[in-house]
Design goal:
The complex is a heterodimer of chains A (480) and B (107). Chain A is built from 15 helices and 11 strands. Chain A is of the alpha/beta class. Chain A folds into 3 domains: 223 residues, Amidase signature (AS) enzymes; 144 residues, Amidase signature (AS) enzymes, CATH 3.90.1300; 64 residues, no CATH class. Chain B has a domain of 43 residues: Histone, subunit A. Chain B has 3 helices and 2 strands. Chain B is flat, with a radius of gyration of 23 Å. Classes of the chains: A alpha/beta (480), B mainly alpha (107). At the A-B interface, helix 9, helix 10, helix 11, helix 12 and helix 13 of A face helix 1 and helix 2 of B.
Chain lengths: 480, 107
């Protein structure tokens, strides 16, 4: 089924709006119309910012008419995951504990998007506090996959991936702590990137696991994705984990092809693995063959520690979350449930405000950090993380990029992975890049079971986004 | 996964009740019954961390080696958002956050 606005590219909108051929308000109205028509069914948005978006679009049109430089994202509608702060606009993390809260400041990505002329259209649904892989954990109901509404859009950034797939916005931002951009991109048939850790400022992103979280873009095409990355990346003094190095030029070489590029296919994720759908493995291997056919040097490589990646992640991420989520205590913002004293008030608030998955992660993390278990869980997981970083760095001495599936399966039906551990296993392909901090992008490459899209990941070393997007662009063109 | 029953990794219902208290969460009995095997399954699976030899390997707390980050000690004016910040509080008075008694109980 063809989705509305699916012919729109970011570069096309920017050119048309910048040259005055088309108004930003016209572009916006087409997308708002798609939202009005179908979001009741999809539930991609927690909040649509129609009035502010119209005012912003009119401002872009006025500045173009006045002959001012239009900006690299002039007139481009953007959907924002609802864990990024927007001043005066509800920001909920799809949690009851923040229902109704309006942040007093904007996330840096919001400022950067607006400075580039982008139009923020609304806040998208997510698994509560970004904890999940299906968007079923939202306090405001699940998002449906626009390609098959009986199935999940992936998660946790499922509202963002669905909004791009449904033609509600040509660009959405998500956050990726263990795959929350790349897996939903794969399940919705769009491109999703987790950049190098520290490349995009996290100022104003509600923290889940601070050593893993990164913001990145969803788009329909690879070149558009690289363009958005160029607009949102860069050092920010307000984020102490923002890296000082300049973000690489990812645009000028994006069409250079893969002749001579060294590609390693991750053996641990492409063999006959349990729980991996055969079509997903087949598409990944075909992607590798296609790159070889286009002149890349392709070999199978092994990163043995990735087999323990999932376990390391499900110790480290909950440990950091248990600390980060301590701030939701009913004192300064959000929900409060009364109690006879401060501790009772905090307990009542957190018990009423958090959903089951958030409670599970907080408890896992609290346990992993407890005296007596700290070294066996958290300390061990952090050492495994070091081993994994060393193994990947060694591999990158001989390979420019690595290839792996983005998800073991295509979009699955609602309720299919109700058991928490079963859901966690779905993150096995994406977690290593969060543990290492390296960038990775998911590109649609053919279809799997029930004609649903399969995503293939291109992984690259620290700040290797230029070669990552170049290979991803080639894959996009080679896709069946 | 095979574990001795006394292994610290075998999470029991009492452990879950204890961490819930530490995390300021009040769980009903039915929730304890449901969460305990779910959390135990995740922690049992974490035994595969032992497959990786980490002898002499330092921990990685953060993927990017950062030293302390400093900025000039310049006073910035945030008075324009003060009202917005306080308006978001569940209870406030005279520009201060209000909470129930920290010691004892409300009379």
């Amino acid at each position: 089924m063809s989705q509305p606005n699916s012919h729109e590219t970011v570069t096309g909108i920017v050119e048309a709006v910048g040259s005055g051929e088309r108004s930003a308000i016209d572009v916006l109205e087409a997308h708002l119309e798609a939202i009005t028509e179908r979001d009741e069914e999809i539930n991609a948005f927690n909040h649509v910012m129609a009035d502010q978006a119209r005012a912003d679009a009119e401002a872009v049109d006025r500045s173009v008419a006045a002959g001012e430089a239009p900006g690299t994202l002039a007139g481009v509608p953007v959907a924002l995951k609802d864990n990024m702060c927007t001043r005066g606009v509800p920001t909920t993390c799809s949690s009851k504990i923040l229902n109704g809260w309006k942040p007093p400041y904007n996330a840096t990505v919001v400022e950067r998007l607006r400075a580039a002329g982008a139009i923020i259209v609304g806040k998208t649904n997510l698994d509560e506090f970004a904890m999940g892989s299906s968007t079923e954990n939202s306090a405001f109901g699940p998002t449906r996959n626009p390609l098959d509404t009986t199935r999940v859009p992936g998660g946790s950034s499922g509202g963002s991936s669905a909004s791009v797939a449904a033609g509600f916005a040509p660009v959405a931002l998500g956050s990726d702590t263990g795959g929350s951009i790349r897996q939903p991109a794969a399940l919705c048939g769009v491109v999703g990137t987790k950049p190098t850790y520290g490349a995009v400022s996290r100022y104003g992103l509600m923290a889940f696991a601070s050593s893993l979280d990164q913001i990145g873009p969803f788009t329909r095409g690879v070149a558009d994705n690289a363009l958005v990355m160029s607009a949102i990346a860069g050092h920010d003094p307000r984020d102490s984990t923002s890296i000082p190095e300049a973000f690489p030029d990812v645009m000028s070489g994006i069409n250079d092809g893969v002749e001579g590029i060294r590609v390693g296919v991750l053996a641990e994720m492409t063999g006959g693995l349990d729980g991996f759908e055969p079509e997903v493995l087949a598409r990944t291997n075909e992607a590798a063959d296609a790159l070889a056919g286009a002149g890349a040097k392709v070999e199978t490589v092994s990163v043995p520690s990735t087999v323990a990646g999932l376990s390391a992640y499900y110790v480290i991420a909950p440990a950091e979350a248990s600390s980060n989520l301590a701030r939701y205590d009913g004192v300064r913002f959000g929900l409060r449930h009364d109690g006879a004293n401060t501790a009772a008030m905090m307990t009542a608030t957190r018990t009423a405000g958090f959903g089951d998955e958030v409670k599970r992660r907080i408890m896992l993390g609290t346990y992993a950090l407890a005296a007596g278990y700290w070294d066996a869980f958290y300390g061990k997981a952090q050492r495994v993380r070091t081993v994994m970083i060393r193994e990947f760095e060694q591999i990158y001495a001989d390979y420019d990029v690595l290839l792996a599936p983005s998800s073991p399966c295509v979009a699955f039906p609602f309720g299919a992975k109700a058991d928490p551990l079963t859901m966690y296993l779905n993150d096995v392909c994406t977690i290593p890049s969060n543990l290492t901090g390296h960038p990775a992008t998911s590109v649609p490459f053919g279809t799997g079971a029930d004609d649903l899209p399969v995503g293939v990941q291109v992984l690259a070393p620290m700040l290797g986004e230029a070669v990552m997007f170049r290979v991803a662009k080639a894959l996009e063109e080679l896709s069946p | 996964m095979q574990h001795e029953p006394e292994s610290p990794r075998s999470l029991a219902r009492d452990d879950v009740a204890k961490v819930a208290r530490l995390a300021l969460l009040d769980l009903a009995d039915s929730e304890l019954d449901r969460f305990t095997p779910q959390l135990a399954a995740v922690l049992d699976r974490a035994a595969d961390l032992e497959q990786i030899n980490t002898e002499g390997v330092p921990p990685t707390p953060h993927p990017y080696t950062l030293n302390n980050v400093f900025r000039p000690d310049v006073v910035e004016d945030f008075s324009d958002i003060r009202d917005e910040v306080m308006a978001a509080a569940p209870a406030s008075e005279d520009g201060m956050f209000m909470v129930p008694p920290a010691l004892g109980e409300e009379p």
